[in-house]
């Protein structure tokens, strides 16, 4: 059962049974904060992670009742040496690993939560070297059958990691995804991709990579993280960006948009001149839009930090029409994507 109630200014959602909510949601008195954190890294890029149950408490206190449990697909290989106070001054290199997925799965299975619903995601795939992905998926399935319902966040191109050995996937790499993409279709499993659109010097430098993915695998559910934005692209023309998003959403009905990460708030959503272009896009395609904080939960992550990320990443919800607010802020699009027996409350007249 999904019950909406006012609790310290945020929407509290409780899970039990399978009936639908009867009360409507009053946008005048209730919070605009989202209830689904579909982009939450329970494991950090480097160093020790935040205690699993403590992070769940952060979610609960913030009114978030659904989350995707991400690791970090590519971590620093010097990680454990640094923790042992060894010399870490050398070149920083990233390397894909399954470690995070095993840790997350063990935590989720050991600490079941009745009032917070967690969806496990496989974050190990190395999309530049896809040959072993299907084998590794099967390894996780053997130990945790049926638990993983998502895959990603995986990097097609992430400019922030270029100085750590990361390179963009090539068109040949994308073609070689075919075996595991077929398996994702069979499982109806979404694939979340970090794929930078470009940068301030070349705004659409990497757009062809996302287009290649969508053209080659039209029947796969693909989630484009952060609308393709990054800290390397702070000055994208919002009209041009909105036009690209609309074109791809119209042409590819299995494409979904992720609006997590404060880079969107900092450079686009908080700007009164830029924001309307994105509100129009989100209102138009709200049934294929997902929310999240993109928090990377290290041992030093505080509850105040999580609450701040919920606030900033929920900011644009204030400006959505009622249909989009229900789909995005109240999570109906996420529930539909994962076929959850849960329904968001209707918006009060």
Describe what you observe in this structure.
The protein is of the alpha/beta class and 349 residues long. It has one domain: TIM Barrel. Helix content is 35%, strand content 16%. The protein is built from 13 helices and twelve strands. It has an eight-stranded parallel beta sheet. Strands 1-2 form a two-stranded antiparallel sheet. The radius of gyration is 19 Å and the shape is globular. The model is unreliable at 1-20 (pLDDT under 50). Residues 1-21 form the signal peptide. Keywords: Signal. This is Amidohydrolase-related domain-containing protein.
Which short descriptors sum up this protein?
349 residues, 8-stranded parallel beta sheet, disordered N terminus, hydrolase activity, Amidohydrolase-related domain-containing protein, Metal_Hydrolase, Amidohydro-rel
Q: Give the oligomeric state of the chains in this entry, treating copies of one chain as homo and distinct chains as hetero.
A: single chain
Straight-line N-to-C gap: 22 Å
Low-confidence stretches: 1-20
- How many E strands? 12
- On the 0 to 100 scale, the average pLDDT is 90
The CATH topology turns out to be TIM Barrel
Question: Could you name the CATH class?
Answer: Alpha Beta
Number of H- or I-type helical stretches? 13
What would a concise description of this structure say?
Residues 1-21 form the signal peptide. This protein is α/β, with parallel strands linked by helices and 349 residues long.
